[in-house]
Design goal:
Structural class: alpha/beta
CATH class of the largest domain: Alpha Beta
Shape: globular
Radius of gyration: 23 Å
Distance between the termini: 55 Å
Number of helices: 16
CATH superfamily of the largest domain: Mur-like, catalytic domain
Strand order of the largest sheet: 6-7-5-8-9-10-11-12-13
Length: 431
Amino acid sequence: MEISELYQIFLKHHVVTTDSRRTPHGSIFFALRGETFDGNQYAAKALEQGCSFAVVDDAKITGDERFILVEDVLKTLQQLGHYHREQMPGKMIIQVTGTNGKTTTKELVSAVLSQIAPVQWTQGNLNNHIGVPLTLLTLEDDNGFGVIETGANHPGEIAQLSEIVDPDMGLITNVGRAHLEGFGSFEGVKKTKGELYDYIRRNGKIGIFLNASDENLVEMAGDLPAVRYGLTGTPNVEVWGEVVECNPFVKFRYRQEHTQWHTVQTHLIGAYNIHNLMTAVAVGMQFGVPFSLINEALANYQPTNNRSEFRDTGRNHLIIDAYNANPTSMAAALDNFHQIHADKKMMILGDMRELGADSAQEHQHVVDMAAACGAEVWLVGQNFADTKNHFRLFPDVEAVKQELSSHPIQGYTILVKGSNGTRLFQLPEFL
C-alpha cells in the first residue's frame, strides 16, 4: 500500500498505537518488532480489542482487509509521520537536539510559544526513531508550532530523524561528553548533533537558534543564518542574560542592547539552566511573543520527571536530577550544588552509563569533584566502586533504600543524580 493511501486511512482513524495493551477504539495498530518481541503476533489481539486496522509486515499474519501488509512496519510508521508533517507547510516546526537540556528546553520553548499560538510538542521522552514519527502524527492544523525533540546515541541518528521531521528551524542545546561508547569520542558527539545543522544548511531552511556563548556550537554553525543569544558580554547577539541568584531556584534577567532588564524568578534548580531559559527567550522574541508573556511562561513553568526538580519532603530538601547523567551534566550539577547554602548537604550519585573506554576516567573525575564540595557523599554502582574514594559505597539503589529505611536521615539538602538505569528516582520516598 502506498503511503498516500495509508494516509487517507489515517485521516479517518487518526490515533496510532504500537502497544497491544493500549488499543483505543478506532485506532491503527503498528506491529513493530523488537529484540525480544514481534508485534505481528499481537495484531489480531489489537483488532479484537478495538483497533480498526493493523499494519503488519509478516504475510502469515494477514487476514481480512483490516490487516495492512507492508514491507517494514517501522519504516512505514516513519514515512507516515513525515508525510503527515509535509501536509502542514504553514506550521512552524522547530527541531531540538543536544547532549543535555533537550527536554527542559523543549518544554520552556513550548510554554513561551503557547502564549501566542497552538503548540504541539514531544511528550515525555519520545525522541527516538519510533517516538519522533509518533509525535509528528499528533500534529493538528496547519498553523502554530511543532517543537520536536530528537535524541541519539549513535552517528547518523540525528541525520535520519531530521529527514523525518523536516524542520524549518533547528536548535542544539549543547554538545557534551555523553554516549561516548556509541559516538566513539567527543568529536563524534559534535558530528552527530551537528547533523541537524547539516540538514538545515543542505535544504536551505530558515536557520537556527544559536547559543553564541557556546564555542562548540558557534564553530559547528559556521555561516548558517542564526538567531544569536548568549550570556552577558557575548558579542553579536540579539539578547543576553545572566543569573541573578540561585538559592536554590534560578532568578535570571535578560535584555537587548540599550534596553531595560527583564527579571524572572523561576522554579528551576541549577544555574546551568540559564542557557535553556535564554533559548526560550530568544525563540519567543523571534516569533513576537511580548516580553510580559515570555516572563509569565518562564515564571510559571514547573519541572517534572526528575529533571532539576526540587522537593521538600518535610524531612529533607531534595534536588532530584535522576533521569539522566553524563560527565557534562554531572559536572554542572555538582558545581551548582557546591554554590547552594545549607547547613547539612549530601549527594547521592549513581553510575553514568554508555561511556565506553572513558568510563573509569570520567567516574574518577566526578569523585574528585565531589570531594571538593564539602558534602557527605554516597556513591551507587560498580563504576563508582572502582574509583579511588573515601565515600560510602552501595552496589545498587536497593541497598540505599535498605540503609535509609533502617537509618533515616533528616535536615539535609540532598542532590540525587545518576543515570536513569541506576533507578535513583526511587529514593525520594525514603528521604
